[in-house]
Amino acid sequence: MPEVALYDKQGEKIGQVQLADEVFGAEVNMGLLHQAVVAIERGMQQFPARAKTRREVDLTKAKWYRQKGTGRARHGAQSAPIFVGGGQAHGPTGPRRKPKMSRKMRRKALNSALSAKVADGVVIIVDAVTAEEYSTKRFAEMLSGLGASGRTLMLLGSDEARSEKVYRSGRNIPKLIMRESPHVNARDILYAQTIIISQAGLAALSEGVEASA
Q1: Which of 64, 151, 166, 181 is the most buried (most CB within 10 A)?
Q2: How far apart, in whole angstroms, are the C-alpha atoms of residue 174 and residue 151?
Q3: What is the residue range of 119's domain?
Q4: How far apart are the C-alpha atoms of 115 and 23, rounded to whole Å?
Q5: CA-CA distance, 161 to 179, in Å (whole number)?
Q6: Which residue has the higher pLDDT, 47 or 36?
Q7: CA dihedral in degrees (201, 125, 153, 171; nearest 10)?
Q8: pLDDT tens, residue by residue, 105-160
Q9: What domain count does the chain have?
Q10: What is the rounded distance in angstroms from the CA atom of residue 80 to the CA atom of residue 42?
Q11: Is 205 part of any domain?
């Protein structure tokens, strides 16, 4: 069972926390992680554009003029892509099929990502994330005291994530992403260079494992 240090908001070590093996000690499945990231990123994309092909445009498919005797180049239907008003060659095709993953696969991918980050030593557990006032400066000082660097992902409990002071104090800090623990995914975890998890957020992650078991 993995064990990591527990810190307060000032960055002082106040104890140790044992992490659930199911979440933070799982086998890292690289193939599943790749599949999860591809599915998540494909789901984020939009393909609204669509162009008609020469088969779909509303023009006659009859030959434009006779083959010989006009002195002009040989042509067939006016719906060919080289003509104005004709179909488009290799144009956008509209919405694409998005890969899907079952809830069990998504959960296993998340556990693999969290386990990999714990093994890398970039997971920091803090007793609570609170803000007494609207202050980006103090929130940034808290992150610095905890040793956060690079792209930082903060996983919060429900009350912490919905706190207006926490949200407004942290939203303008570069490279900081705040998530309510049940709403995090494997891509968020893998792209983060530092992961800060509050105890409330940690409990929510464990509850998610029990619910999906």
Answers
A1: 181
A2: 8
A3: 3-28+100-212
A4: 7
A5: 7
A6: 36
A7: 80
A8: 999 999 999 999 999 999 999 999 988 899 999 999 999 999 999 999 999 998 99
A9: 1
A10: 32
A11: yes
